[in-house]
């Protein structure tokens, strides 16, 4: 009995090591943040959550003051979520969000149709290979997040891209100046100033915001000051006042 138990423990250890060596979450990881973002904690207590609302989760994480470090995406058989957590710990993430759904395996209806088609070609006899169950495949996706330092302003933005329209066969470019707010960090200066997702920022203080790279240096230059922000909401221009944090 002792020998069998020892063998079982040995096999479990071998299996765990094999999973670790073949960590598909690590192998398929792609960094998104260019500033080598990691947790503010030296040894973060990485948390993992399983969800199925990726877009909503992304906005929620941004609003809570996190930024995405990177993500993993792949299709495979049964892969435990524990491996996503292992990789999250290895790259010093605070939070890992995991999503799983059925992959590209044939549906029951498509398999029946394929079997009927095969039987037709073989004089009414189905190919035994067509009757065998296909291995189940899943699509996996994991995003890795780190908590940001206290923000100076507290908005995540995207640059509005000019769009080209055709009118009377003439091409015209419609200018979309400003930076669109993708998310506002809760309890940040921007949140307290009343800015919301969807607003378009045009100016902070006297500094015009024409490209995404304009915002960070402007906010750093104005930190500690109370300044006006010119923005647009639902097509109407407005001004609010914000007290920018200082580090």
**How would a crystallographer describe the biggest sheet?**
6 strands, antiparallel
Helices and strands, in N-to-C order? Answer: HHEEHEHEHHEEEEEHEEHEE
User: What's the gyration radius in Å?
Assistant: 26 Å
Number of helices: 8
**Number of domains as seen in the coordinates:** 2
How many strands in all? Answer: 13
Principal-axes shape call = elongated
| Helical amount | 25-40%
The pLDDT mean sits at: 83
Q: Low-confidence runs (pLDDT<50, min 5 residues)? A: 1-16, 169-175
Strand content: 25-35%
Structural class of the secondary elements?
alpha+beta
Quote the distance from N terminus to C terminus.
Answer: 64 Å
Descriptive notes:
- β10 (200-204) and β11 (207-208) form a beta hairpin.
- The longest helix is centred in the N-terminal third of the chain and has 20 residues, at 2-21.
- This protein has 8 helices and 13 strands.
- The protein has 2 domains: 2-104 and 136-146, no CATH class; 155-243, PDZ domain (Pdz3 Domain, Roll).
- The radius of gyration is 26 Å and the shape is elongated.
- It is α+β, with helices and mostly antiparallel strands.
Considering the chains and any ligands shown, give keywords for the structure.
single chain, 247 residues, alpha+beta, Pdz3 Domain, six-stranded antiparallel beta sheet, 13 strands, 29% helix
Secondary structure topology:
Blueprint: H1 2-21, H2 24-27, E1 29-31, E2 47-50, H3 54-63, E3 66-76, H4 82-90, E4 95-102, H5 108-121, H6 128-131, E5 138-147, E6 155-159, E7 163-167, E8 170-174, E9 179-184, H7 189-192, E10 200-204, E11 207-208, H8 215-221, E12 226-233, E13 236-243
Parallel strand pairs: 2-4
Antiparallel strand pairs: 1-3, 3-5, 4-5, 6-9, 7-8, 9-10, 10-11, 10-12, 12-13
